[in-house]
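User: What would this chain look like folded?
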Amino acid sequence: MRRKLIIILYSIAFLFIPLSLVEIRAEENYESYVDLIMSSGKLIRDFTEEEYYEAVRGSETNVLFGFEVNPINSGVKASYISNTIVSFNNSGETEIKISRDIDIETNNVVTFSSTISGEASVSGGNKLLKEQIAIKASVSYSEKSEESVKMRTKMDVVVEPNSSMIIYLTGSLTVFNGGYSYYFSGRLLEQGLYEYVILNSQYSKLEKVSNDYWRKK
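Assistant: Here's the prediction, encoded as structure tokens.
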């Protein structure tokens, strides 16, 4: 599976970036990643209809006010592939040396998503939805990053004759998701799925492949 995704990156990324310094402000929206692989469980976008209703029903209770949650995945580790940083195809007969300084800035924020926005029926709007579900789901949530991590990597790459290379962004995440219910005066006003994804790390990775590989495809 991971190899197929590398192939996808190769197929869409053959643009040589003629700069000695590449600056990347890492993408924080996990829903835009090329791939995200959890060590167990799944993202809410991949829940079946049956799994959706099972998660939601598990959050139903008899409270008068507030949110109740039914955690499905709590603190599950995941890896991902984000986007291509640099790519190059050497179709010649001599090797080519490429040197790049790659600056990656990562803001370790928590991304929230839900099957419904909550703005229409939850008093306080979407902000309250995110914060209150986070408390119930034991997630340390903040819309603002408390820390910006900057990392510089120097990459000296030899691209052999008749071969291609890409440098792409990858890293690790932690996933929390499940079902929730919202009550007001004992009435069930809203139900849905929630998901928090914590960005833990981002770094650049190099992959190389022979051009003969593509001819076989």
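Residues 12-21, 117-124 have pLDDT under 50 and may be disordered. If you want, I can go into more detail on any region.
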